[in-house]
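ok trying this again, last paste got cut off
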Amino acid sequence: MCISKKIAIPSGTASLNYATSSVQILSKFPGGLIFTKRKPLELSQKISTARKIKGLTQEELADKAAITARTIQRIESGETRPRPYTLKTLAAALDIPYEELVDHQISTADSSDTNDILPTDREHYQLQLICISCFSYLVVPLVHFLIPAILLKKSGLQDHRLVTFARTAIRRQVYWTISLWLILFATMGYNFIRVIYFEKTGIVNFLWPFFLLYTGNAGLIFLHLYHLKRIASIQFAAK
């Protein structure tokens, strides 16, 4: 519901109900700023607005919160979602109660369950790209996990839940590579024994373990992509 009533807030005061309202600076007047309540603010907007109310630059806020100015820029642009600890330091630097700075969505996102992750569009794209790059096992099956690992390193993801999701996908590709080698060696050993002691009877074709492992890995990657699709649908519903 849009409230058109204007509120005068003294300069330097950053105490607003961030969890239920947003503010838009209309004009300045001696002794205070005029704001008007509108639709709910995103977390990035809340932090940016509070910083401007305090009259701080991004660099000054970064110094007060003991974090980098680049991190402040990424948070205010919505490129990354700060961790609870970072939010607490920002709230202290901005003289805002921690409870006012976080809304229901951010508070419930503290769960480690991946289903609760609501990444930004850019983060979702990065995760999707990392998962799709795992299909490189079809071309370079022995070192293909290096490709998503490099993409993760260059992605700039900071949310530990998103990084954990990506690392899990990469780790499973490492396990798959190890399993491929072990099963191939086991098949070769089995065939060697059959040739030596059983006159070449019951030899296993190497194509069978290849087929089973390649098919299983494709299903595993599609499972990760399906999981991302579910997260995207939850994010869309939340909007």
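PB: full thing came through this time. The first helix runs from residue 43 to 54.
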